[in-house]
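User: Some background: our group keeps a shared notebook of sequences we're curious about, and every so often someone picks one and asks for a predicted structure to add to the entry. Today it's my turn. The entry only has the sequence so far, pasted here. Could you supply the structure so I can complete it?
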Amino acid sequence: MMVSYVSYHFRQMVKRVLSVYLFLCLPISIMGQTDPEYRMELGGGIGLVSYQGDFNGNIFKNQQPMFSLLAKYKFDPRQALALNISYGTLKGSSKYEKTYYPNITTYDFKNNVLDVGLRFEYNFWPFGTGQDYRGAKRLTPYIYIGMGITACKADKTEMGVNLPIGGGVKYKAADRVNVALEWTMHISSNDCLDGISDPYGIKRSGPFKNTDCYSHLRLSLTYDIWAKCRTCHNDRD
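Assistant: Of course. Here's the predicted structure to add to the notebook entry:
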């Protein structure tokens, strides 16, 4: 009888312990399971663009506003492919440049520029809330490189390819909201973004030698869409 009495109370104690465990831990488990990963980001950005070329060599000089639309496809928490469409203004002047131009006295320009680019991004740490992916961080630095097309309205519309290279830092402000601050150098194949080609009278050799460039400092805000199907793509383990 004594053995049966002890066994009965032992079973009751185990049931109570399990009940408390399930009460405390099950909601956390369910919350983690219902916090999905997302495949894409959509958003926009605002920043400053600076022309670097024959009439300006300072990235902090003659900065002009630039606006962007962007979309990202995320392969995983570290890698993404990003499409950027940006519109702004390039501005420069020979007035304050300590350079001799053989056939120019004073030259000023202010040209509209459209940039469309595709780039590969790499996060130094997995990016996320920490619930959607084990070990993910809300804050991470990142780098990128890609290829783009530049269209600039000078005396006529100038076209060329550009090589965007840069980096920045991104922060997961909420479960589906991302904020990023980045700086990009666009190395262009065109020497007429300022409206004048070879003002020194020296012919260039190579697709990116002695050409006009522009740098872009941008603050962007994006929103996660397209929840990942965990049943079909379970890569959390």
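Suggested note for the entry: Residues 25-33 have pLDDT under 50 and may be disordered. The chain has one helix and eight strands.
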